[in-house]
């Protein structure tokens, strides 16, 4: 064989190996999503994510996207946004085959900004411990639905809390299973001022943005969709002030605008996982500390390993860790559905 032919063959072989390694990585990512995240939460997504991990045409499509745009959540939501719910693997492959341009466009232009107002249920007990009234600042607020916590009702099993602000009986009620000595408040804390910060605030006046938020709720989670609808309607009547900005650079300025005579609280839920590397998260924590604000974090435990090390073992996989000024106090269901309190607060 001539020298050029050998070199060309070598390049083809190396290219194939690189491609196989890339597809294997994507396949593992989707299989892990199916087993660890979708199982038990959405049968449809479990099945579809597993299919992606097994079919070359689906892996090939996902491999055409930049690495940071390949998440299962984003792909499955984009397919649904463009084509509707795939009932089975054949549907999914057909949708990707016929609409890959549009699906790619959604995956490149949107991010997973799921806004889950039910997470307010796990924040409320801590907020109620603080001197009132509160000035709330949520970083990574998405559409700002978690800033409207006084518009919602809460059911903690042995205690029910009515909304502080009436919305004609249309307020969603968030059910939260509790264990441990949860300091369940008698009433919703008084909120004097509120503001959000997000890289890309969702504008609920836009039907497209609202539709995207709904698409991010997994199929089969109808109760979540109904509550999201109710919260969106409340937010349309009471638009939260969510400013475009980066929590790494724009927080101190926002804190400075909070009114005097309030307890300023900086909180975040399901956000810091998107901020990397770890030193950037630590930098954010140091900034909050410097502002003197109270700091409430509701994140996956891996987000701040040094805080997680001080917590007792989680009662179940997938729980978020709630911490207050860097001290862990409770494990929380990722969608606000449970609260296991171990703090001494
Ligand atoms: C998964 S959503 C969570 C929304 C809301 N906190 C909740 O729990 O419903 C994460 C949000 O964080 C925002 N985000 C990610 N990195 C950010 C940053 N560096 N600065 C501000 N917002 C950020 C994203 O745009 C997105 O809206």
Record keyword descriptors for this entry.
345 residues; alpha/beta; Rossmann fold; 2 domains; nine-stranded mixed β-sheet; three-stranded mixed β-sheet; 12 strands; binds S-adenosylmethionine
Description of the molecule:
By secondary structure, this protein is an alpha/beta fold. The protein folds into 2 domains: 3-109, no CATH class; 117-341, 3-Layer(aba) Sandwich (Rossmann fold), CATH 3.40.50. It contains 11 helices and 12 strands. It has helices spanning 3-38, 43-54, 56-63, 72-83, 89-109, 120-129, 207-215, 222-237, 251-256, 278-291, 305-308; strands at 134-139, 153-155, 160-161, 173-175, 177-179, 191-198, 242-244, 263-269, 294-299, 320-324, 327-332, 338-341. The strands form 2 sheets. Strands 5-12-11-10-9-8-1-6-7 form a 9-stranded mixed beta sheet, sandwiched between helices. A 3-stranded mixed beta sheet has the order 3-2-4, with no helix packed on it. Strand 8, helix 10 (278-291) and strand 9 (294-299) form a beta-alpha-beta unit. Helix 4 packs across helix 5 (89-109). The longest helix has 36 residues, at 3-38. The radius of gyration is 22 Å and the shape is globular. The termini are far apart. Bound molecules: S-adenosylmethionine. Residues 111-116, 119, 139-142, 146, 197-200, 246-248, 269-271, 274-275 line the site of S-adenosylmethionine.
Bound molecules: S-adenosylmethionine
Seen as an oligomer or otherwise, the chain set is single chain
What share of the residues lie within helices? 40-55%
Structural class: alpha/beta
CA radius of gyration? 22 Å
Helix count from the secondary structure assignment: 11
Q: Could you give the order of strands across the largest sheet?
A: 5-12-11-10-9-8-1-6-7
What distance separates the N and C termini? 77 Å
Kindly state the number of beta strands: 12
From the 3D coordinates, which CATH architecture of the largest domain would you assign?
A: 3-Layer(aba) Sandwich
Secondary-structure element order, as H and E? HHHHHHEEEEEEHHEHEHEHEEE
CATH class of the largest domain: Alpha Beta
- Low-confidence parts: none
Count of the separate structural domains: 2
Q: How would the global form be characterised? A: globular
The biggest beta sheet reads: 9 strands, mixed
| Strand residue content | 15-25%
CATH fold annotation of the largest domain? Rossmann fold
């Amino acid at each position: 064989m001539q020298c050029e032919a050998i070199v060309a063959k070598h390049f083809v072989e190396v290219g194939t190996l690189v491609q196989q390694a890339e597809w294997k990585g994507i396949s593992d990512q989707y299989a892990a999503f199916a087993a660890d995240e979708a199982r038990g939460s959405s049968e449809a997504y479990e099945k579809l994510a597993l299919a992606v991990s097994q079919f070359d045409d689906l892996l090939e499509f996902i491999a055409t996207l930049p690495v940071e745009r390949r998440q299962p959540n984003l792909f499955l939501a984009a397919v649904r946004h463009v084509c509707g719910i795939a009932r089975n693997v054949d549907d999914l492959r057909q949708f990707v085959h016929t609409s890959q341009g549009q699906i790619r466009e959604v995956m490149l232009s949107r991010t997973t900004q799921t806004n889950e107002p039910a997470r307010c249920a796990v924040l409320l007990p801590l907020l109620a411990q603080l001197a009132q009234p509160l000035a709330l600042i949520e970083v990574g607020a998405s559409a700002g639905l978690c800033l409207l916590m006084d518009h919602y009702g809460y059911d903690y099993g042995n205690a029910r809390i009515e909304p502080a602000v009436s919305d004609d009986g249309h307020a969603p009620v968030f059910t939260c299973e509790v264990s441990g000595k949860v300091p369940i408040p008698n009433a919703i804390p008084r909120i004097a001022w509120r503001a959000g910060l997000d890289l890309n605030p969702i504008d609920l006046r836009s039907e497209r943005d609202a539709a995207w938020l709904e698409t991010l709720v997994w199929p089969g989670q109808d109760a979540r969709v109904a509550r999201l609808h109710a919260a969106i309607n409340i937010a349309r009547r009471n638009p939260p002030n969510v400013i475009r900005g980066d929590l790494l650079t724009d927080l101190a300025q926002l804190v400075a605008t909070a009114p005097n005579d309030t307890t300023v609280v900086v909180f975040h839920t399901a956000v810091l996982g998107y901020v990397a590397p770890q030193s950037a998260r630590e930098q954010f924590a140091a900034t909050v500390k410097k502002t003197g604000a109270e700091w409430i974090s509701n994140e996956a435990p891996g987000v701040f390993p040094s805080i997680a090390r001080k917590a007792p073992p989680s009662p179940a996989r997938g729980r978020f860790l709630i911490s207050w000024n860097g001290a862990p106090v409770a494990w929380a269901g990722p969608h606000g559905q449970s609260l296991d309190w171990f703090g001494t607060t």
